[in-house]
Amino acid sequence: MEKKEIRLNTDQSVIKKFDSRYWVHPWEAMGTIGSNVRTIASGGQGIYLYNEQGEKLIDGPGGMWCTQIGYGRREMADAIAAQVLAMPYNSPWSFTSEPAAVLAHKLALLAPGDLNHVFFTTGGSTAVDTALRFTHFYNNVLGRPQKKKIISREKAYHGSTYLAASCSGKERDKTFMDTDTENVHFLPSVNYYHCGEGMTREEFCQAKVEDLETKIRQLGPENVAAFIAEPVLASGGVIVPPVGYHAKCLEVCRRYDVLYISDEVVTGFGRLGHWFASKDVFGIEPDIITTAKGLTSGYLPLGACFISDRLLSEVSGARAQGANFSNGYTYSGHPVSCAAALKNLEIIEREHILEHVRDVAPYFQARIRELKDIPIVGDVRGIGLIGCVECVGATPHDALLLHKTIGARIDQHCQKLGLILRPLINMCVFSPPLIITEAQIDQMVKILDQGIRLAMADLEAEGLWVRAAPGVSAGTAS
């Protein structure tokens, strides 16, 4: 069939047609490909996006957990444009650049402990892939080629590249996808809401730590390279582990010579009110940290993998065995992305955004927890400026179908009312821009409350959801 070039066209119906016909989106549902009709994001300012009709919508998910400083920052555009005009690209194999070198220094100053070496990547998935490949490289150089197994958690999400996806524990994402099942092993979920029945939170925490130690001993410490963990399991439903969990897991890893990888792709750069959550929130200094998202506030793609001095000292210099860490990307340390990151960090510091998050987060958490009074809401959880409202129900119909319907219905109602959600099956997750105010939180929660109640009324009228009798639990589902 002859192809004809079509130039940019502002006709919204044409844009939607092109989108549905030609763009395969992330997590595309194959059953409806070619017939999806998506909202067009036509602009943004502060915490708001505008659709094709020019209607203002609160960006509840903050893009994809990443729009820390908000939209429409002129100085970000100026910094990006200046670097494009000065030098848009250089090969990271042959040259360095001022933005990349200065950013590496800046990040080393901000990172906890001895995490002073930065490997730049294209985003979160490649940062995680780099961390995993480094653990294998590290053990090969040390003469321990069998020490390759990675331990992760159910409901964890670590990315979409092969190794990162293999370490992700969201089971429905793997139904038709291949992953490494030989070297990657999973521990039970750390979600107290679903798994903690009959235990105090302290007992649940101890059980989860014992899961890790038991798995290491089963696999053999000589075979286990690393444990990878998100400080907060974000895409798994904003699962906040019990107090002390990360510190105790780190102790187990140290005991058995297993590296601890902290995946801070979501929690890094202010989401919990600190540059990094690992030490300042959860009290640990991991061996490796992976980041992306908030590093540039989504203005340009960039990720970073932080590696400790201790690890590098064991496989470099006289101990290098002639090895190269043969891992890299065409756009590693991209000068324009690094310039954007430097300006983003400058804005966060100058406007005291980390302090603002620490001030406003308790209010955000208190307001979203008020939604627990709605009958269809089973759990509300979160920390910092990240939260999840999980809906449940008793139904004569297929549970998964109901849960997908709940999320989609709430999303539809909220968009009409002026709020963008990220529905994850039966959960609504939030990570708004860090500049959000208390008044804007009020507005967001008010719309969400309305959206949930409207969706609940729809489902109840259609017989898809049954209100639990007083005193009877409606049950939970993931």
Characterization of this structure:
- The chain folds into 2 domains: 39-69 and 353-461, Aspartate Aminotransferase, domain 1 (Alpha-Beta Complex); 76-350, Aspartate Aminotransferase, domain 2.
- By secondary structure, the protein is α/β, with parallel strands linked by helices.
- It is globular, with a radius of gyration of 23 Å.
- 38% of the residues lie in helices and 14% in strands.
- Strands 4-10-9-8-7-5-6 form a 7-stranded mixed beta sheet, with helices on both faces. The protein has a 4-stranded mixed beta sheet with strand order 1-2-3-13. A 4-stranded antiparallel beta sheet has the order 11-12-15-14, with helices on one face.
- The chain contains 15 helices and 15 strands.
- The longest helix has 24 residues, at 438-461.
Secondary structure layout:
Blueprint: H1 12-22, E1 43-45, E2 48-50, E3 56-59, H2 62-65, H3 74-86, H4 98-110, E4 117-121, H5 124-141, E5 149-153, H6 162-166, E6 184-187, H7 192-195, H8 201-219, E7 224-229, H9 245-255, E8 259-263, H10 277-280, E9 288-291, E10 303-307, H11 309-314, H12 335-350, H13 353-369, E11 377-383, E12 386-391, H14 399-417, E13 419-420, E14 422-424, E15 427-430, H15 438-461
Parallel strand pairs: 3-13, 5-6, 5-7, 7-8, 8-9
Antiparallel strand pairs: 1-2, 2-3, 4-10, 9-10, 11-12, 12-15, 14-15
Helix pairs in contact: 3-12, 4-12, 8-9, 13-15, 14-15
